[in-house]
Write a structure and sequence with these properties.
alpha/beta; Spore Coat Polysaccharide Biosynthesis Protein SpsA, Chain A; eight-stranded mixed β-sheet; two-stranded antiparallel sheet
């Protein structure tokens, strides 16, 4: 059962948002990574940065950037309204998240939010639900139910079987974590030479480092993956203004 709208934490917590903008975006195509494409006159990554800068319960930010765009991003964000660190990402999403966590140690947060910059629409009530659930879990992920019928298909394209969509959900970000738990999980994975984690909650589950809670996501919190997604996001972001 999804956690709905839990009460806000009873004591103040220090929260750092880690924004991952270091992927190559190979599936999207084009000359530049998708997080640097322009939608409605703004680069995609700026929507995430501005959302967390304006959100009152986030105290500091870490922006993890593709190495080819490091200087460009630093020049674009000279006077952020909150403490902001810009660091170079790694070869995988997992490595980039770990780089962001190591940089976030400077802020000594209790909680970190890890967000994919390719999801530019982040309504404040979605962040509310993630942060509020930190009182009951070490890892929180927003999710939305799978509504399409599902098939398992062989490598040759043959139908194998229908898969029940009951209790299946699609994962979104930002995901929230206890800083100590997620930092330990990433450290253990790195020391074991594991690089196969595509989701940070998976690390908490693998190393059994705390409770995991799912909260209601938002259907407009879509990830920019293909050019058709860009057209949808143009409408969503224009309406959100």
């Amino acid at each position: 059962m999804l956690s709905g709208n839990p009460a806000p934490p009873s004591v103040p917590i220090r929260t750092t948002a880690i924004i991952l903008a270091s992927g190559s975006g190979s599936r999207f195509g084009g000359d530049i990574p998708k997080q640097f494409h322009i939608i409605n006159s703004r680069p995609v990554y700026r929507y995430s940065v501005d959302a967390f800068l304006s959100y009152p319960l986030v105290d500091s930010l870490v922006l993890v950037v593709h190495p080819n765009f490091l200087n460009e991003v630093k020049a674009a964000l000279p006077d952020a309204s909150k403490p902001l660190i810009i660091v170079e990402g790694g070869a995988t999403r997992q490595a980039s998240a770990y780089a962001g966590l190591l940089a976030a140690k400077l802020f000594s947060p209790d909680t970190v939010l890890i967000h994919d910059a390719a999801r530019p629409y982040i309504p404040s009530d979605l962040i509310d639900r993630v942060i509020a659930s930190r009182t009951e879990a070490e890892a929180i992920s927003p999710v939305i139910p799978v509504t399409d019928s599902l098939y398992q298909v062989t490598s040759s394209g043959a139908f194998a079987r229908a898969v029940s969509r009951e209790n299946l959900y699609r994962v979104q970000t930002p995901q929230g974590f206890d800083m100590g738990a997620i930092l330990e999980a990433h450290g253990r994975a790195a020391s074991e030479g594991r690089h196969d984690f595509t989701d940070d909650v998976m690390l908490i589950d693998t190393y059994k480092l705390g409770n995991i809670v799912c909260v209601e996501g938002d259907p407009n919190n879509i990830k920019l993956t293909t050019p058709s997604d860009e057209q949808i996001l143009e409408i969503i972001l224009r309406r959100s203004k």
